[in-house]
């Protein structure tokens, strides 16, 4: 031991630091090196049918904490109580990152969420007990779903913690406002999922049987809908068969119809899928049959044919043009989706054949030629055509897809592109839906959600980023306890849900008569697509501005 280390150890021994426990916002990523602070209470605001989230943080002090467990709070109001399955408690697991997403920092970052009782099958899991090492911090995540029938008013609750030699609690106050968020998101989403990755993570074999895929994928769909996103491609497929396993449409409807119709079990009652990707064979007869079946069963308005990906890189322009032309000819009411810009659509003669122009966020308000500055006005003519929509997506372009390249100059402290990476600030994962709103996007695409599901607990480094294409964790009984395998959410999924709920508040204010105010709040928070702040509290302040403006516009909803 060096002399400085010896002196530090001696100082700690002479003046031990007590442990600390405090309530924390959802907008802080609590890492082991997070210092202790004093905040025994927290104030939250939420609508009915909205999720309010917060954290409870423990710092071990000089001696550490052992055998820590926690009890989920019940929130008491004057006329009602929020408790039971509407309050979920998780332990935040740490992902040890050795190669950071540029220009990030290596180390341990919170992301996987181990439930006390899981939200899919309701089994007790191994969130507790756990230890907090000396000199380090650990965190719990708490979700509170405000029931749709909860009376407006102030509710209070406390998370009670106990461990070897201590008992403690933190208090949270929740103001429920007289507004209701819809169970089905107003912003459509197509978050994609490749079933063989699910098979590999849960069975060890990417070629698991269709019956196994159906069982697992139903749980993934439920988890996604509870986080206000849609797994638009989450239907059984095999590694050697990129099209879906579809014995007949009646069987398909019996399996997946409840998720498309809003009848599947969910705390967001009536939540239904907002998008559905056609995954059948690329021939005219199959496309025409799908259009007919989807129209008859009420799915067609949400269905799309993904005719090509980022041409000329993922798909050639010739392939994208041929597929779009085929679909338009044999299934003219099935909408077509292509990831490109409107300029490229025009250059390749595709303005008539593409319905959902899905644009990389870096190209809608960019920093590099030919997309420098606000490009949104270029889409007005396209969007004036019947049935046309603008969608957005973010990708590894937010941090740089190629290892070894210099970090993007936009990603400096306090600003940068929206990002779903583990080792980015909480704010970066919440910003995308604000940009969707301000740019007038009707939907959001994400290319993959289970890319490295099989290694999610140990590494998610892909396309030069940590977590790129992986938003779930495999909840195997060998890891989380219980007897049933379930998907687990990441902390980033929780943050994306906060962004989806922010979108609802922006829309509520806009629909209530003040779209200019909603846009102004969004633009003040994120002045450019490349300027998403790292200040999580700024998102909470902006959301409160929207809530107050909505109450002014709808005085009957102002509450007591």
Query: Distance between the terminal alpha carbons, to the nearest Å?
Result: 62 Å
Mean pLDDT: 95
Principal-axis shape: globular
Strand content: 15-25%
Uncertain parts: 1-12
Assign the CATH class of one domain: Mainly Beta
Portion in helices = 25-40%
Structural class: alpha/beta
The CATH superfamily of one domain bears the name Immunoglobulins
Q: Count helical runs.
A: 15
Kindly state the number of beta strands.
25
Strand order in the largest sheet = 13-21-20-17-16-15-14
C-alpha-based Rg, rounded? 24 Å
CATH architectural name of one domain: Sandwich
- CATH-derived topology of one domain: Immunoglobulin-like
What about the largest sheet?
Answer: 7 strands, parallel
Structural description of this entry:
The protein has 560 residues and is α/β, with parallel strands linked by helices. It has a domain at 15-180: Immunoglobulins (Immunoglobulin-like). Helices cover 28% and strands 25% of the residues. The protein is built from 15 helices and 25 strands. The protein has helices at residues 3-14, 195-203, 210-226, 249-261, 284-296, 317-330, 342-347, 361-364, 380-383, 426-430, 432-438, 477-480, 491-511, 515-525, 536-553; strands at 20-25, 41-48, 51-59, 65-71, 75-76, 81-82, 87-97, 107-115, 130-132, 137-145, 153-163, 166-180, 188-191, 276-277, 303-308, 335-339, 356-360, 365-366, 373-374, 389-393, 443-446, 461-462, 465-466, 472-475, 486-489. The strands form 7 sheets. A 7-stranded parallel sheet has the order 13-21-20-17-16-15-14. Strand 5 and strand 6 (81-82) form a beta hairpin. Helix 5 packs across helix 6 (317-330) and helix 11 packs parallel to helix 13 (491-511). The longest helix has 21 residues, at 491-511. It is globular, with a radius of gyration of 24 Å. The protein starts with a helix and ends in a 7-residue tail after the last helix. Mean pLDDT is 95; it is low at 1-12.
């Amino acid at each position: 031991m060096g002399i400085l280390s010896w002196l530090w150890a001696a100082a700690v021994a002479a003046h031990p630091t007590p442990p600390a426990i405090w309530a924390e916002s959802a907008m802080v990523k609590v890492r082991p090196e997070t210092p202790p602070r004093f905040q025994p209470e927290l104030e939250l605001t939420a609508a009915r049918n909205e999720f309010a989230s917060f954290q409870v943080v423990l710092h071990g002090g000089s001696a550490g904490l052992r055998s820590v467990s926690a009890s989920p709070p019940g929130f008491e109001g004057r006329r009602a109580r929020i408790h039971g399955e509407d309050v979920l408690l998780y332990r935040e697991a740490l992902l040890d990152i050795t190669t950071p997403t540029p220009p990030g920092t290596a180390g341990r970052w919170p992301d996987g969420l181990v439930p006390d009782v899981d939200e899919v099958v309701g089994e007790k899991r191994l969130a507790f007990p756990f230890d907090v090492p000396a000199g380090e911090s650990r965190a719990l995540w708490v979700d509170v779903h405000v029931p749709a029938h909860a009376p407006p008013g102030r509710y209070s609750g406390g998370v009670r913690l106990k461990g070897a030699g201590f008992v403690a609690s933190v208090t949270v106050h929740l103001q429920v406002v007289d507004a209701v968020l819809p169970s089905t998101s107003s912003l459509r989403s197509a978050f994609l999922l490749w079933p063989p990755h699910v098979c590999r993570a849960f069975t060890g074999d990417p070629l698991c049987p269709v019956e196994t895929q159906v069982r697992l994928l139903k749980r993934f769909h439920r988890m996604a809908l509870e986080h206000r996103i849609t797994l638009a491609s989450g239907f059984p497929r095999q590694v050697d068969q990129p099209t879906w396993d579809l014995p007949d449409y009646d069987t398909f409807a019996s399996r997946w119809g409840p998720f498309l119709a809003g009848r599947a079990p969910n705390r967001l009652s009536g939540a239904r899928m907002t998008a559905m990707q056609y995954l059948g064979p690329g021939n005219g007869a199959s496309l025409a049959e799908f259009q007919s079946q989807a129209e008859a069963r009420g799915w067609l308005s949400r269905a799309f044919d993904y005719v090509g990906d980022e041409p000329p890189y993922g798909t050639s322009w010739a392939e994208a043009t041929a597929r779009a032309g085929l679909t338009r000819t044999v299934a003219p009411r099935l909408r077509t989706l292509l990831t490109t810009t409107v300029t490229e659509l025009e250059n390749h003669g595709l303005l008539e054949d593409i319905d959902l122009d899905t644009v990389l966020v870096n190209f809608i308000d960019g920093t590099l030629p030919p997309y420098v500055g606000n490009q949104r006005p270029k889409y007005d003519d396209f969007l004036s055509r019947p049935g046309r929509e603008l969608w957005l997506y973010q990708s590894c372009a937010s941090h740089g897809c190629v290892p070894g390249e210099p970090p993007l100059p936009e990603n400096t402290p306090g600003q940068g592109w929206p990002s779903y990476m583990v080792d980015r600030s909480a704010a970066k994962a919440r910003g995308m839906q604000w940009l969707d709103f301000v740019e007038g996007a009707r939907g959001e695409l994400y290319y993959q959600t289970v890319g490295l599901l099989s290694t999610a607990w140990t590494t998610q480094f892909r396309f030069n980023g940590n977590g790129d294409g992986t938003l779930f964790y495999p909840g195997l009984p060998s890891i989380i306890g219980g007897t049933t395998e379930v998907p687990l959410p990441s902390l980033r999924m929780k943050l994306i849900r906060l962004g989806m709920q922010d979108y609802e508040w922006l829309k509520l204010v806009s629909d209530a008569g003040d779209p200019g105010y909603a846009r102004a709040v969004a633009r003040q928070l994120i002045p450019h697509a490349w300027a998403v702040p790292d200040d999580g509290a700024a998102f909470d302040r902006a959301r409160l501005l929207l809530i107050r403006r909505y109450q002014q516009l709808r005085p009957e909803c102002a509450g007591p």
